[in-house]
Design a protein that fits this description.
The protein has 203 residues and is mostly helical. It contains nine helices and two strands, in the order H-H-H-H-H-H-H-H-E-E-H. A hairpin with a 2-residue loop joins strand 1 and strand 2.
């Protein structure tokens, strides 16, 4: 069965927003435009997202349905289960976390002010961006992560699938607590990671 237009858009978007930010950051590092600590933020963010929920979601490790059972077969062929967690973690680290880092830099006039110590306005912007992008993602792929399928428990989703109220609906597509929780918890983790990586930049 061929991909539908929506499935092709999801697959293309996943590959693009995973690979393009990585290519850009590596290119900018090669030109010495960005420092090594930014690459460290990317790498650690990838690991945290992978271990925090993406691997668990992909393989349905604890009371969850594996991704290859939640998606159409055509989509499974272009995004195989074994690399799904790599792509989604790369998306999280690049299209989400690096963009949040960029927003922090822009907020303070292209100065490292928000990287030197905790600034609550920056924290709130990160939180809003993390949640807003994830609401959009859940809305866009509602057929894959909707309430009719059960997603795994994960370290950054301590409530698991056992308590997962619907927060609200957009055009009859549900936005649930379980899928938003990891990005809420990721906000302080990410900010702490940024502060740590920036302070270690000269070591």
């Amino acid at each position: 069965m061929a991909l539908t237009e929506q499935q092709a858009t999801i697959a293309a978007g996943l590959y693009f927003f995973t690979l393009f930010p990585l290519a850009v950051i590596l290119f900018l590092r090669l030109l010495k435009i960005v420092p090594n600590w930014v690459l460290a933020v990317y790498g650690y963010s990838f690991a945290i997202c992978a271990l925090g929920w993406e691997i668990w979601y992909t393989f349905g490790l604890v009371s969850g349905v594996p991704v290859d059972e939640r998606r159409a077969e055509a989509l499974n062929r272009v995004v195989p289960q074994n690399i799904n967690w790599i792509l989604t973690s790369g998306f999280d680290a690049g299209a989400v976390c690096l963009v949040a880092l960029l927003l922090m830099w822009i907020m303070y006039g292209f100065k490292p002010t928000a990287f030197e110590r905790l600034h609550w306005p920056a924290f709130i912007v990160i939180l809003l961006y993390f949640v807003a992008q994830n609401v959009y993602v859940e809305y866009a792929i509602n057929a894959q992560v909707g309430t009719d399928t059960q997603l795994s428990w994960a370290p950054l989703i301590p409530t698991g699938p056992w308590w997962n109220p619907v927060l609200f609906e957009i055009n009859n597509r549900t936005i649930t607590f379980q899928t938003q929780l990891p990005w809420v918890l990721m906000t302080p983790i990410f900010y702490a990671l940024v502060l740590w990586c920036y302070r270690r930049r000269s070591r």
